[in-house]
Design a protein that fits this description.
The chain is of the alpha+beta class and 340 residues long. It has 2 domains: 188 residues, Fructose-1,6-Bisphosphatase, Chain A, domain 1 (2-Layer Sandwich), CATH 3.30.540; 125 residues, D-Maltodextrin-Binding Protein, domain 2, CATH 3.40.190.80. Helix content is 30%, strand content 23%. α2 packs antiparallel against α4 and α6 packs across α9. The longest helix is centred in the N-terminal third of the chain and has 22 residues. The protein binds 2,5-anhydro-1,6-di-O-phosphono-D-mannitol and magnesium ion. 2,5-anhydro-1,6-di-O-phosphono-D-mannitol binds next to β4.
Length: 340
């Protein structure tokens, strides 16, 4: 058993030594994201006590209810990251346009897209929620960055990660050199390496989808689900259902145990519900780096070229064999695929 105790900071310094492209600024940015996540984690943990739960009485740009903790997490992330001279552009699920870097602060060469607190329906019931982030290089010629720095395809990401506020707080990230998971040791306030080089099992026993929407699904989604549930002896995948309703938590479980998460397009949401830049793309980068796959049913998530900040996409993500199996049903123009 590996008895090494490795802090997040130590790990970043090691990575920097091994991969010169992980230069100072990049490492600094990841360190600051982790710092902000610790503050959000503290707020999530004490939310019930502080009496800050419940709806804020506002709606976000997607017209959905915003919870107070969403706003708090957004503000913590922005205030921790906007003054460092590392970012030229910042976007958030909680902000309709880009979040401006105030003129009095210097700008840097990176853009960051984030969902500061994902899983809003689980916030005030003490169920796991998460923060998702995606880091891109500045591509615009605008001196202080512009929206094109945020709106880039998944394959352009230089790092992506999430923080899961569950029974413990975990930060999972990739910068293209594998996937690493750190667990927050609250008494010392440090993230410690707990999962090195995470690999998603090739296949898995869990499917995660909101089956309440089955009446709105296209036929191929229903056909796929029937096969996912059917026993292996009868040609199906013999899978069981796990669905939390927090993308980070559902993805994290499936990554460690093996499985598939699906949020398909349906009659009501022709592009699905989840957002490309700060939900689908960062998790797709992590899935790919861990040996899994992510698709919108037609195209790799990483290859999609987005055009809008809050663009939505269908998402099918998880173990490679399970995604491949699902794709037999979802590929365009393919009708009536059968169980194996
Ligand atoms: P949110 O960004 O408002 O929290 O919505 C995203 C969440 C995901 O975490 C989760 O996978 C999905 O919404 C659940 O949606 P539904 O309640 O429709 O199943
Ligand atoms: Mg979200």
């Amino acid at each position: 058993m590996d008895k090494t105790i490795m802090s997040l900071e130590r790990h970043f310094l090691d990575q920097q030594r091994r991969y010169p492209e992980a230069r100072g600024d990049f490492t600094k940015l990841l360190t600051e994201v982790a710092f902000a996540a610790k503050i959000v984690s503290r707020e999530v943990n004490r939310a019930g006590l502080a009496g800050i739960l419940g709806r804020a009485g506002q709606t976000n740009v997607q017209g959905e209810d915003v919870q107070k903790l969403d706003i708090l997490a957004h503000n913590i992330m922005v205030r921790s990251l906007n003054h460092l001279g590392l970012l030229c552009a910042l976007s958030s699920e909680e902000s309709e346009g880009m979040v401006r870097i105030p003129d009095e602060y210097p700008v840097g060469n990176y853009a960051l897209n984030m969902d500061p607190l994902d899983g809003s329906s689980n916030i005030d019931v003490n169920v796991s929620i998460g923060t998702i982030f995606s880091i891109l290089r500045k591509v615009s010629y605008a001196p202080r960055g512009d929206v094109t720095d945020c709106v880039q395809p998944g394959y352009k990401q230089v790092a992506a990660g999430y923080v899961l506020y569950g029974s413990s707080t975990m930060l999972v990230y990739t910068s293209g050199q594998g996937v690493f998971g750190f667990t927050l040791e609250p008494s010392i306030g440090e993230f410690l390496l707990s999962h090195s080089h995470i690999r998603i099992p090739r296949s898995g026993n869990y499917y995660s989808i909101n089956e309440a929407y089955s009446h709105r699904w296209k036929e191929e989604v229903r056909d796929y689900l029937a096969c996912a549930k059917r026993s292996r002896e009868s040609g199906g995948r013999g899978m069981g259902l796990r669905y939390i309703g927090s993308l980070v938590a559902d993805f994290h479980r499936n990554m460690l145990k093996g499985g598939i998460f699906l949020y398909p397009a349906d009659k009501q949401n022709s592009h699905g519900k989840l957002r490309y830049l700060y939900e689908a793309a960062p998790l797709a980068f992590i899935a790919e780096q861990a040996g899994g796959k992510a698709t919108n049913g037609d195209q790799d998530i990483m290859k999609i070229v987005p055009t809008e900040l809050h663009q939505r996409t269908p998402l099918i993500i998880g173990s490679a064999d399970e995604v491949d199996f699902a794709m037999r049903f979802f590929r365009q123009n393919q009708t009536h695929a059968e169980c194996a």
